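Minutes, project huddle
Topic: does the predicted pose make sense with sodium ion bound?
PN asked that the exact inputs be recorded in the minutes so nobody has to dig through chat later. Recorded below.
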Amino acid sequence: MTFRLDPLYRLGAWGAAACMLSICALVTLQVLLRCLDALLKAVGASRLGLEISGVSEIAAYLLVGATFLSLAYTFTHHAHIRVTLLIGRLPPALRVWFEAACLAISLALSVLLVWQLIGLVRESLDYGDVSSGLMAIPLWIPQSVLVSGIALLCLALAEALLATLRQAVTAPSAYVAPGDDAHGGE
Amino acid sequence: MLTLSLATLFTLALLLGGGVWIAFALLGTGWLALTGFSSFEVGPILASDFWGASYGWDLTALPMFVWMGEILFRSGLADNMFRALSPWLNRLPGRLLHANIIGSGLFAAVCGSSAATCATVGKMTLPELERRGYSETLALGTLASASTLGLLIPPSIMMIVYGVVTEQSISRLFMAGIGPGLLLLALFMLYLVVWSLSAGRRGGAGHAEPSMPLGEKLRNSWRLLPLLALIGGILGSIYGGVASPTEAAAVGVVLSMLIARLNGHFDRHIFLESMFAGLRTSCMIAFIIAGASFLSSAMSFTQLPTQLATAIADMGLSPNLLLVVLTLFLLVLGCFLDGISLILLVTAIIMPLINAAGIDPIWFGIYLVIVVEISQITPPVGFNLFVIQGLTGKNIFTIAKATLPFFLLMLLAILLLRLFPEIVLYLPQAMNR
Amino acid sequence: EQWNLATPYGDASFHTQNTKAFAEDVAAATDGKLTINVHSGGSLISHAEIKPSVRRGTVQSGEVFLSILSNESPIYEVDTLPGLATSYQDAFDLWQASKPIITELFAKEGLMPLYAVPWPAQGIYTDFTLTDASQFQGLRVRAPNINTQRFVENLGGIPTQTEEADIPTAFSTGRVDAMITSVSTGNSMSAWDYVSNYNDAKLWLPKNIVFVNKRAFDRLDADTRQAVLDAAAKAEQRGWQMSKADAAKSAKALEAHGITISQPSAELQQQLKAAGQQLFEDWQARAGDQAKELVTRYRERQAQQSQ
Ligand code: NA
Ligand code: NA
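Predicted holo structure (tokens), as shared on screen:
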């Protein structure tokens, strides 16, 4: 199946990649600074005491982007897992309706989730919520990232649902479930 | 109480069986349980719980370790490891399958989560084992179960959770996990040996590779060096005081890149490929974690687990019977709740009983961790099963069937620990001297 | 009517025991018309999400460590300023003086404070005998909040962030050399596993605060409302006693496990005071008129006490 908005989902994945790289880089830098301090202490000098304050706090919120911005990308690569033991045995003409139902349920839940999370963002903006650590990160930022990730997933689910429904109406017995042939989505 | 339990079970079974993605099945079940059986407004709970489960410092270790696994998988290190190990393991029945168990044990010492242990070790070993004609059932079973040791061999996220809420010493819990961890490793390996011997020519235990003289074996072993350097580097960063266990995950990523580079298997292409593969796996796991967290908290709001646990507390059982009933209860609950929720539930309601029964809280912590380990490999909600399904595309029920013998071995381990509590308590008590 | 109350602290903590007693008192006083389920140990909601959840009405009531709100208003920092209030009496006066402002701040979010209970005074854990502030030079000190960080910097130390769960490993591997916390926390974390000395510097007494969603509270009938307020007043009184008792018990436990508890020398006390004073002045500048008002009220109360 081809997704028309695929470039958008890839963009999300690149955003996630950027977050993941930032986490890795920040933590590595922190560890390198500690190594330097350990060396200095070993040769009898005094510690520099360089600590990047707030690494753990920033990384904790970068994680939101690193994992959830790629939701849609992961979906289009069939890497979200499910149990196909039962529906895999259905004839294509019936399977296609099951697939549509699964997509519809998932889409409904995603839309609900986006809707409620938007409420959460609005509340964080209203009250000016910030994280409790030293960095005082405004919470609406990572929360909006989460909303974007799930909104992308909504789009991907909607695309898949439409395509599946079209197939169900036009040529149900020619239906081939996506991702059945491959896994993990290389 | 009964209606709610049945309705929850039925909904989850229906959604999962019908092929709904696991994360959505969990979200949907939680949503129905809350709308049908409580007067709470579901939307805000969904939003705040999903949000609460989506960030966190210690969670960052998971995508890092997953990424590291993807790098190692592409670096040719796995092949090296197997080539170096196979002459040594040639005589041992079960041969390279032991690499799954030993690898998990080693990696467990580096990593505090079982999903990350499973993803990292499995990414390296499963394709190689398949290529070498080992029994798939055993390969899946050993991996799924041995990687749960990530929780038992320190460092361990679960022990930290238990230690913090019950005010037990985390260092003592860490020490206490070592003995039982080794016991489980030994049990798993023993089972593998027995299985291979009894399998005889049935196959699946790998092919004998040409034996070689000791000198050559040793010369071959240098291939293990990069991997040992990696594990040594990560452990060194933790115990050398330059990285916390969470930070060590990022150290692992950087070290594995360096090692892969030295091994000649690292370029821009592999870098990007490993990163995006890592993103997909961590996204899949994180989404399920958030779904499981919402289902768990929905259950807390309906008071169902609390009522069940209180019912057990009111039975007035003897210590041994209490443990038996508790184990059964947790096994059933462990099919649906994630590990952290299990620990929090038990500690909130059962802990006074445990103290009253005179059961050592450190021992009980280890017991709980093993039960949580078991819950990682029981369907439908078992994170190691999910991870392996993500790695192999095999159905979680197939994987669960493959882990059944190991599930029983873990129950046996609990029995052994009850009979010989010193396995748990020797090391932490030695700390007092 | 059923309420849920979320607290991040485990059942072993005296705070949770007090909160559970509060819930029982409410149930008894209202003949079960209002029951409060206490969800301890962060089992329902994690620490950072408790206040937003109560605000939203997801749960009706919650308990948090007051100073985790420091980023929202400098007023919430008041019980973590070193040297401002160093005894239970002072801490109580400070709470009384800050209560009106905190009530006002909470009301803006549709919340209402019920009661606050302090932790025992904060001291310094080290694996050497602390005699002089110069020993802080280059020392890695765990600083869980902004004020502790500034305080450590003022003393010449290196403030480091360590998650609570990471503390034992951090100490035993040398990522952290010292921490500032109470005897209670040290006892519950088995501090003797990794440190040997406790300096009872009595720097400040931070508090936990228990609060409700105002809408949920207003929905109750007048009698029930009164019953909640009465139980809260009782819980506050009991909580302060429990804190004192726990401090004594914990100090004994620490000593029993081989930790040396010492009092700061006059010189060290002077140095700590200077570092704290600097922090206090910064805070007053940041916090503005409200803070001045609060401090004036606090000093008046102190003056009355000493008469
Ligand atoms: Na581990
Ligand atoms: Na399970």
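Observations noted during the meeting:
- The longest strand of chain C covers residues 111-118.
- The interface with chain A takes residues 48, 52, 55-56, 68-72, 109, 137-138, 140, 145-146, 149, 158-161, 163, 175 of chain C (CB under 8 Å).
No decisions taken; revisit at the next huddle.
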